[in-house]
Write a structure and sequence with these properties.
SH3 type barrels; five-stranded antiparallel β-sheet; alpha+beta; 2 helices; about 90 residues; about 25% helix; globular
Length: about 90
């Protein structure tokens, strides 16, 4: 007999799924990147890396909000890389 999935416990059970909004800073858990929501095309969200760059498409189900500290950290990492000449 196969085990059945347990329902979520506590607050998560009552919380609606996260719905990203325009300009939210999110983590794309499938790609392992942090980006800003720029819009959506069909079922996918369009994300742009913090500090600029090429947009990528992400499944909304793989996105999670990041804390202010995580968003700032991503921005500082980009600024540091630019100061070292590692990216344009």
């Amino acid at each position: 007999m196969e085990p059945t999935a347990c329902p979520p416990v506590g607050e998560d059970r009552d919380r609606p799924p996260y719905e990203p909004r325009l300009h939210d800073v999110v983590e794309d858990t499938a790609a392992g990147k942090v980006g800003k929501v720029m819009g959506h095309v069909g079922p996918y969200m369009q994300l742009r890396p913090i500090g600029g760059g090429l947009e990528w498409e992400a499944d909304p189900g793989s996105l999670r909000p990041v804390t202010t500290a995580q968003a700032l950290s991503a921005g500082v990492a980009i600024a540091n890389a630019r100061s070292r000449g590692e990216c344009p």
